[in-house]
Amino acid sequence: MGAIVLTAGCKPMAGKPAPDLPTPSTTITIDPVPSTAPTTTAAPTTTSSSTAAPTTTVQPTATGTVSSPKPQPVPQPAPPGGAVAAGTVPQPGQVGFRGDATKLKIVDGPGNAPAGTRWNTGALRFSGNVTLDGVHVKGGIEYNGGGTLTIRNSIIEGNHFSWAPLLGNSGHIDVRDTTITYKDSQWPGPQWGNGAIHGDATVTVIRCDISGTPDGIQNGPGNSTIEQNYIHGMLRAGAYPNNTHNDGIQNYGGANLSIKYNRIDISADGKAYDGTHQNAAVFIMPDGSSPSKNLQVVGNYLAGGGYILRLGSPMSGTIVTGNRFGTTAGGWGEVLLDNGGISQWANNVSASGAQVPQP
User: Fold this and answer.
1) Using omega within 30 degrees of 0 as the cis cutoff, is the peptide bond preceding 241 cis?
2) pLDDT tens digit string along 288-301?
3) Residues 25-83: pLDDT tens digits?
4) Which of 97, 102, 103, 234 is the most exposed place for a label (fewest CB within 10 A)?
5) pLDDT of residue 257
């Protein structure tokens, strides 16, 4: 078995040096492209008393040849299970952007960067109160404002020019029903790699599909809500000791972090830990200057990691209930607790269906 993954080295930090940000005087709202085409009125049709089956009429073309009937589009199946119900763990395909990606507004350079924002070498940068709705950002988003960045029904496709697909150094980020991914051969950030959502902003992340980065979410301050997301397909790269340290969610303390009803699966090839890369599906890493208080880990499906759930110290008031764990193959177990702090532990079930005892 490989060496246990180190606990240090993944903490959010300030992004790359950059010029001063534009600060809009008013709220920026980027409206989505209309989701449906204008309706048309069909011409009246004629009726026939004949009972014969209808036939397809092939019209002659200008060259005297005949054209074949246009093929009809093949109906596409709906995502499995439909929309995810409140208070349940999503199945793959139930969360993230689930509409027609061709209807999204493309943002991929200075020519189509929204007013009040700046495209800076592969990343959209701004501050203030900003709403992005129905956009496909082909690059990173870097937010440094003191207000709120709101994202709805969009796709964010990061690259190595930004430290993360969605980097929040301050303020609050509220992102829902959005797919956040990373498609670049170079790791985002230095050393062990960054999260798809990363930084010291507080966050509300609901019904998002998150993949492609070394970590899913790296959260600095707590005071955040992470619910009904699908976090999967983390980037496993490098060889020990210069390898990614994969976590589904990594937090650095603070109060009132809520992690509920998520599907977090960083396992690979039928193993929780491949001997090098996966650290934990959820890794809480507080310190003396930022203790963890009133953490809630409730109703999740958690898979992958040397230990699937790692709880550091100092910690107090932690609630861990109703979670289901995946396989521990290749790893050491479901839970590692440094030094107490759990106030409620109940109905946490292993892959075999057995109750996981409180550590």
Assistant:
1) yes
2) 999 999 999 999 99
3) 334 555 554 444 334 333 333 333 333 333 333 333 333 333 334 444 444 444 456 88
4) 102
5) 98
What's the pLDDT at 11? 53
Place of tokens 């991914």: 181
DSSP 182-250: E--SSPSSSTT--EEEEESSEEEEES-EE-SSSEEEEESS---EEES-EEE-----EETTEE--EEEEE
Size of the chain, expressed as the number of residues it contains? 359
Alpha-carbon distance of 86 to 176, in angstroms, equals 14
Q: Please say whether the beta carbons of 262 and 291 come within 8 A.
A: no
CA angle 211, 159, 139 (to 5 degrees): 100
Contact 248, 281 (CB under 8 A): yes
Stronger pLDDT, 19 or 230, i.e. the higher one: 230
Residue range 258-282, pLDDT digits in tens: 999 999 999 999 999 999 999 999 9
Distance between CA atoms of 341 and 173, rounded to whole angstroms?
28
Residue type, 6: L
282's tokens: 């959820």
